[in-house]
Design goal:
Helix content: over 70%
Strand content: under 5%
Radius of gyration: 18 Å
Number of strands: 2
Number of helices: 10
Largest sheet: 2 strands, antiparallel
Order of helices and strands: HHHEEHHHHHHH
Structural class: mainly alpha
Strand order of the largest sheet: 1-2
């Protein structure tokens, strides 16, 4: 199960995702096609294919007669993404719990949880983001719903995680993923779905608080 395209375009996609995880690229930043082709040693067609793929995933914004840019969300857009993410994540958790088999999936899920633990303990933001992606891939693999696997990457949660990467939010994610995994490993579909919805709601609250604090700081400087 891979979310990225094949061939040279894959190299560009993975490079941009890694750049976002490591904060080398930031929301709102424009990306020059020629520079990307040189950086990743690929042709311009591969760059264009990668941009189309990342646009579908809600990571890149494509505008006529302008360079592509890393998507930047305002509060309203963030909440819209989270509304969709809540339904998708709840379905992913419920489906995974219903189809979980310790013999087939136990090692997969525990390995991902260990990666999350290590990254959180070492406060490695890039490593944590990579482990987060693996966590959701594991849920989709366990649930084995082909339509959900097709649609899930397009929700736009990656840019949410990149734009809102405060340490307190990482703690929320780390704790909530453990709760979701515990319910899945018990094959408790209802609690798994509830923990997924609660997780997205926790992220929603944290993002609203982040915007409120930012607005207060702006008002305080006036």
């Amino acid at each position: 199960m891979e979310f990225e395209p094949a061939g040279a375009a894959r190299k560009v996609v993975l490079g941009i995702l890694s750049g976002l995880d490591e904060r080398q690229l930031v929301p709102g930043q424009r990306l020059a096609e020629t520079e990307l082709a040189l950086r990743y040693d690929v042709g311009r067609n591969a760059v264009r294919e990668a941009m189309q793929h990342l646009s579908v995933r809600g990571i890149i914004e494509l505008e006529a007669n302008r360079s592509p840019s890393i998507r930047k969300l305002d509060l309203a857009e963030s909440m819209e993404v989270l509304d969709v993410a809540e339904a998708m994540t709840a379905l992913a958790a419920r489906t995974a719990a219903g189809r979980y088999e310790e013999r087939l999936h136990g090692k997969l899920l525990r390995d991902v949880l260990q990666r999350l633990d290590v990254a959180a303990a070492e406060r490695e933001e890039g490593a944590f983001n990579a482990a987060r992606r693996q966590f959701y891939r594991a849920l989709l693999r366990i649930g084995d719903n082909r339509e959900l696997r097709r649609l899930f990457p397009s929700v736009g949660m990656h840019i949410i995680h990149v734009q809102y990467s405060a340490s307190d939010l990482q703690q929320v994610r780390h704790r909530d993923y453990a709760d979701m995994a515990a319910a899945i490993m018990k094959k408790d579909a209802g609690p798994a779905e509830e923990s997924a919805r609660r997780h997205v709601d926790n992220v929603r609250t944290a993002i609203a608080d982040w915007h409120a604090r930012r607005s207060s700081r702006v008002m305080g400087r006036r």
